[in-house]
Design brief:
By secondary structure, this protein is an alpha/beta fold. The chain has a single domain (26-306), classed as Alpha-Beta Complex (2-enoyl-CoA Hydratase, Chain A, domain 1), CATH 3.90.226. 41% of the residues lie in helices and 18% in strands. The chain has helices spanning 3-23, 66-78, 96-111, 127-133, 159-165, 189-214, 218-224, 232-237, 247-257, 274-279, 282-287, and strands spanning 40-47, 49-51, 63-65, 82-91, 115-125, 137-140, 145-147, 151-152, 229-231, 243-244, 265-269, 305-306. Strands 1, 4, 5, 6, 7, 9, 10 and 11 form an eight-stranded mixed β-sheet that branches. Helix 4 links the parallel strand 5 and strand 6 (137-140). Helix 6 packs across helix 7 (218-224). It is elongated. The termini are far apart.
Length: 307
């Protein structure tokens, strides 16, 4: 296949992605439905890294916007036909603020009288577990990777490399801590203490949110909140998950909690990345060539992330 043909295919896919991104956002998408028009279970998908800001619905999108998810949750709260909501999670986590924003909207949704069930796919860890902990019930597959309750912050120190390359940097700042985390020098003792205090505060917020959502003592959750990941089967033994099952089990549970009779009617709400569906298992291979900040999962040049 010639380079011109390959380039044409790539440009065509990008153009199609741009067009579809305008039509598949929360406010413009008509939910797929089945069955009658009453007593529905709404489904909201959270796939990829959770972050604040505008949604990226392009071809290489691998994250989800907390603002878009929050708007979709508010829409579900206003819909009289939605009796319960399933939050379908397949995410390694994300930033603390973004996870908090979604968690707050879930709490408001529950306060409106609607039941909310978290359904965990391959992974629902860190910030994604924070979101799940805000729901009424959590359903996970036995092999789901979840937990990872903790916070991480990393900053590179490239001073040695700069010295070898003959690169120097002059910094002019209004205060001693304005350039905290600079890659051109080591972190000072005072800065290290400041960074750690930030991490400790966010960590405590995380633990408090999980303890509140799971109706457990903070000290009990703290014993599990060392950043480790659990399988779904381990998590249910520890009280981090309520039930083992798949997506369909979560829908049935949501319908039962909402008092719906028979097989629940499903209404998919919000945006679901069509490229992830279209490309299937090749999706992650495509994304592996794209440089993105790792907000969770062990290494991060991002200011901080949940882990």
């Amino acid at each position: 296949m010639s380079r011109k043909i390959i380039a044409g295919i790539i440009l065509g896919l990008v153009a199609l992605s741009v067009v579809l991104s305008f039509n598949l956002r929360t406010g413009n998408r008509t939910p797929r439905q089945s069955g009658s028009d009453k007593g529905k279970v709404g489904v909201i998908y959270i796939e990829g890294t959770i972050a604040s800001g505008q949604s990226d619905t392009g071809l290489l999108s691998s994250g989800v916007s907390s603002e878009e998810i929050a708007a979709t949750i508010r829409k579900a709260a206003r819909d009289p036909e939605i009796g319960a909501v399933v939050i379908r999670l397949n995410s390694p986590g994300g930033t603390p603020a973004a996870s908090q924003e979604i968690g707050l909207e879930i709490e408001r949704l529950r306060q409106s009288g609607k039941k909310v069930v978290a359904s965990m796919g391959d992974v629902a860890a860190s910030g994604a577990y924070w979101v799940a902990a805000c729901t009424d019930q959590i359903v996970a597959n036995p092999g789901t990777m979840t937990g990872s309750i903790g916070v991480i912050m990393q900053t590179p120190n490239l001073q040695g490399l700069y010295d070898k390359l003959g690169i120097s940097e002059e910094t002019f700042k209004s205060g001693p801590y304005k350039d905290m985390g600079s890659s051109s020098r080591p972190v000072t003792t005072d800065e290290r203490a400041i960074f750690q205090s930030m991490i400790d505060d966010i960590y405590n917020q995380f633990v408090d949110a999980v303890a509140k959502g799971r109706h457990k003592d903070v000290l009990e959750i703290r014993k599990l909140a060392d950043g480790r990941v659990f399988t779904g089967r381990q998590a249910i033994e520890l009280g981090l998950v309520d039930q083992l099952g798949d997506f369909h089990d979560a829908v049935l549970l949501a319908g039962k909690l909402a008092g719906l009779s028979g097989e629940p009617v499903i209404a998919e709400l919000g945006y679901k990345n069509i490229w992830r569906n279209f490309l299937g298992g090749a999706w992650e291979s495509i994304l592996s060539g794209k440089s993105m900040p790792a907000l969770t999962g062990g290494t991060s040049a991002y200011p901080y992330g949940l882990r």
